[in-house]
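Quick note —
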Amino acid sequence: MANEKDKLKQNLEKVAEERGDQQAVSYQDLFSPMFMQKNTSFVTIDVFVRELGLKDFQEIEKIDDKVIDDFVKKETNFNNWQEMQQRAVSEYMTSLF
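Predicted structure written out below.
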């Protein structure tokens, strides 16, 4: 198990070196349609955002944590927004290999 974690860490470091420190992942890539359809009742992250009552993804930073956590718990397979983000990052990173 530790060996697999070491390999994953090495692979992630290699990708980071290849892409450079400035490489950013778009929220659409992170919350891909496949991720959203598998884990939520929405087809895309943009529909999720609109149903949350926001105009665009950037407004998520301005919303009260309890509001988004309650929405995520009701409409997704996750208990809160933090958990949903962590899974999205994990699945995105796994998809790179």
